[in-house]
Every structure is written in structure tokens, then in C-alpha cells.
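so my prof wants the structure for this chain in the C-alpha cells format not the other one, which i didnt know existed until like an hour ago. anyway here's the sequence
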Amino acid sequence: MDHKKIILTGLLIFLSVIVNCVFAHGVDGATKTFLIGNDGVAFIPFLYIGAKHMLTGYDHLLFLIGVLFFLYRPKEILIYVSFFTLGHSTTLLLGVWWDIKVNAYLIDAIIALSIVYKGFDNLGGFKRIFGYQPNTKVAVLIFGLFHGLGLATKLQEFKFDKEGLFTNLIGFNIGVEIGQFIALAFVLIVFSFWRHSNSFIRFSTLTNTLLMAAGFVLLGFQLTGYFLS
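here's what i got, hopefully its the right format
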């Protein structure tokens, strides 16, 4: 199998994994059991749960992959990741603490749209079709707010008492950042090798098209869940 076929096969497998993972996304049984029975401060367990949830949160990771796809300079990467972190940390903490009620399906549908948006943006769709380029930093911040609400809705299902909640939320949020750092480190390592290959530019269109396709799959799943619930 030649180099092009290997990359194409890998991209198709990547998309199929995303489709299959849609039905497994959420809080696993052991974590549910712990969260339901938790009482008081549990900083380390919440830190672990936050990291695990981020590492398995394919919707968050797909958006970040799109954000990082054409970023080469460390300063740019840091700025964009900081905007995303600021957004999702704010709504995660405030959403749970203030018990802000939002429909989980609709929030996850917006998160899916953020993936479609970034793939479309990477393909230059806004300039070609609309003749206008949105401010990408502002977009990452705004979508970060929705990603944080998505995380908040997962925790709100367990109706925590206020005792120890703030400490546990801080632990969960730090865990999310740790998980995000691990995932981004892996993605950046892969990108650093791939960008030295001539196939990076050639396959960038296909990759971002698949990114959009994954976003549309997630969007359809969430909207179906909303209308059937």
C-alpha cells in the first residue's frame, strides 16, 4: 500500500471511529456510580474524571484539531488554546455552580456545529462563498463557552449538593485541562511529523472535509435525540 492510500485509509478509519463513538459518549457506569454516591470534597477523583472525560470527549478534541490544523507557531497555538480554555472553564464552573439549565442535546448540537464551522473555515469557505473572514479568535472563545456548557450539562445530571462542590469543580476543571494538554501534545506531535510530508497540503482538503462530515454526523445524532426526547 502506497503512502497516499495509507493516509486515506487512516482518515476514513478516523471518521468511522468518530461515528461509532457517538453512541458511547457520556459518563461511564463506574463514574456514574461514584458521582451519584459522592458526598463532600473529592478533589482527586474529580480531577481524574475531568481528565478522562476530556480524553474521551471526541467532540471537544475534533474542534481543537480543527483549530490547530493550520497553526504552526507556538505563540499562536497558545493564544487559541487559551481562548478556548477561558471559554469552556467559565461556563463549566458557572453553569454547574449557578445550576444554569440548558438542553444537553441542543448544546451538543452547537458543539457539533463548531466542528463543522472549523472545518469549513480551514477550507477557506467563508472567504470563497461569503467574501468575509470571521474573527477566528472570537469564534474559538464563543464556541469554548458552548463546549463548557456541554461539560456542565454532564455534571448537572447528578444534582450535587453545594458542600464541597466548588472544590470538586475546580478539580474537575483542572482535570479537563490536563486531559486537553495530553491530547493536544499528541495531536501536535502527529502534525509536526505530517507537516514535513508533501501529503499534508494535498490531504488538508480531504481531512477538513472529513472533519465537517464528522460534525454533521454528530449534529444529526444530537438533533435526533432532541426531537425524540
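also thought this was worth mentioning. Residues 18 and 58 are 7 Å apart (CA to CA).
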